[in-house]
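Action item from last meeting closed. Structure (89 res):
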């Protein structure tokens, strides 16, 4: 297995892109998962305004990597797909 690198990335492997969460993006995230944003870990219920502030001041991390698999023996491999449930399912 090989993975993609880039000299502009952190240690040639990780790209970090920081973007401000816009009002529209915050509203979209709140509409998609209201329970996630309106209820704190302590069980405190937040107003929509407070939940939007929480979303806009949060650090939302999206990460990815690119892997390149090289098949050395075309007769001895299996391709599989693993799907995990999200917290909302």
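Sequence:
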């Amino acid at each position: 297995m090989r993975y993609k690198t880039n000299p502009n990335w952190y240690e040639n492997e990780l790209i970090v892109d920081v973007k401000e969460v816009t009002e529209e993006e915050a509203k979209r995230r709140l509409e998609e998962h209201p329970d996630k944003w309106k209820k704190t870990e302590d069980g405190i219920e937040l107003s929509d305004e407070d939940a939007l502030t929480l979303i806009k001041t949060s650090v939302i991390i999206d990460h990815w990597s690119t892997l390149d698999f090289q098949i050395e023996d075309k007769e001895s491999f299996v391709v599989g797909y693993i799907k995990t449930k999200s917290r909302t399912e």
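Note appended to the action item: The chain has one domain: 2-68.
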